[in-house]
Amino acid sequence: MMRNVTGRLMLLDTASLYFRAYFGVPDSVRAPDGTPVNAVRGLLDFIDRLVKDHRPTDLVACMDADWRPKWRVELIPSYKAHRVAEERPSGPDEEEVPDTLSPQVPVIEAVLDAIGIARVGVAEYEADDVIGTFTARARGPVDIVTGDRDLYQLVDDARGVRVLYPLKGVGTLQATDEAVLREKYGVGGAGYADLALLRGDPSDGLPGVPGVGEKTAAKLLAEFGDLAGILAAVDDPGARLTPTQRKRLTEALPYLAVAPRVVRVAHGVPLPDVDTTLPRAPRDPDAVRALAARWGLGGSLERLLATLAR
CB count, 10 Å around CB of 247? Predict the structure, then answer.
């Protein structure tokens, strides 16, 4: 469930943003006890800038309750395998995260909760899937803020869905609509997932079709429309595929049979009933004051609170 959202909904790929904050803000930014809080303060600065520049009516910090869902791994075992720090027989595997970032994540969660910014993660799903489901159910325009190009698949001009992709911090964002995608990749939002699964993505452990890079994938999609059209062409001796393309695609059929479910974000995640309205005042002022003092959040938190109050 989610409450009806008819205004401008902003969805944060929270982990993507706090990783960027962590690497973009010096670790000399510390709490009074010397604990690094660069990711915390950097993320608060990001949110402040995003709210100032784009004025959403609703905002959700979408979380990875499971960054490597087992149902995806069962389909493609290499999925994000290179980022596993420790495999766990039950529950999500532990992701390899910098030592000084891990302790900051609970602080980020506590601060967002105290402010009253909706924070949503759903067991057995990634933040991308939460974002996909919120996007599917929104009734107004949607801004998705992420450094992950996988979410380009959600771009939809007709529905006012775009991706704000940070090029440098969040001061310089690429407002990604279908025109940007077509110019850069030769496909619109609906075709991006097919492009991604054909070319593969080493950062996610997706092998793709050997020998089919981004340009070839775009040409195949331009010729045959979508993955289903390409697979139909493989079965059609008269289809305009080169012998090499036909061979490579035929050999990759087992991968192509399962890759769509892995690459495409889910749209049916069981969302909690959550109030996504951007708060004007902190939900828990006492907790905000305590967190500010404990972690030395200073101007970053004060600026965000002032922006929300406007």
Answer: 13
